[in-house]
Amino acid sequence: MFIPTIKGQGSEEQKAKWLPLAESFQIIGTYAQTEIGHGTFVRGLETIATYDKTTQEFIIHSPTHSACKWWPGNRMFEIILYMDAF
């Protein structure tokens, strides 16, 4: 889901920067939508990502346990990934 998301939603500048790195495995990324308390019900997601212009970083805030990311990417049997961002 990482590379297709860049291809489908990235600007030309973003594609030029990130696709060569991702396709040559110099970077690894993921797409995480599922929350433990909401499944794939996107409108119910609690996690908020706020861009901080001063640091040029995203601040990720998952306010409750039900907002934790669990098994993103449908890789339940190959990779178990648990991300709890507060």
List the helices and strands and how they pair.
Layout: H1 2-9, H2 12-23, E1 48-52, E2 57-61, E3 69-70, E4 82-83
Antiparallel strand pairs: 1-2, 3-4
Q: Low-confidence parts, pLDDT < 50 over ≥5 residues?
A: 76-86
| CATH fold-level topology | Butyryl-CoA Dehydrogenase, subunit A, domain 2
The count of domains is 1
Major beta sheet summary: 2 strands, antiparallel
- H/E series, N to C? HHEEEE
Mean pLDDT: 81
Distance between the termini: 24 Å
Percent of residues in β-strands: 15-25%
Strand arrangement in the largest pleated sheet: 1-2
* SS class: alpha+beta
The amount of helix comes to 10-25%
Rounded to the nearest angstrom, the radius of gyration is 14 Å
What is the CATH first-level class name? Mainly Beta
CATH superfamily label? Butyryl-CoA Dehydrogenase, subunit A, domain 2
Number of strands: 4
Per DSSP, the total helix count is 2
Domain Acyl-coenzyme A oxidase N-terminal: 1-28
Cofactor: FAD
GO molecular function, one term: FAD binding
Pfam families: Acyl-CoA_ox_N
Explain how this protein is built.
It comes from Pocillopora damicornis (Cauliflower coral). This is Acyl-coenzyme A oxidase N-terminal domain-containing protein. The structure is a single chain. With 86 residues, the protein is an alpha+beta fold. The chain has one domain: Beta Barrel (Butyryl-CoA Dehydrogenase, subunit A, domain 2), CATH 2.40.110. 23% of the residues lie in helices and 16% in strands. The strands form two sheets. The protein has a two-stranded antiparallel sheet. The longest helix is centred in the first third of the chain and has 12 residues. The C terminus is likely disordered.
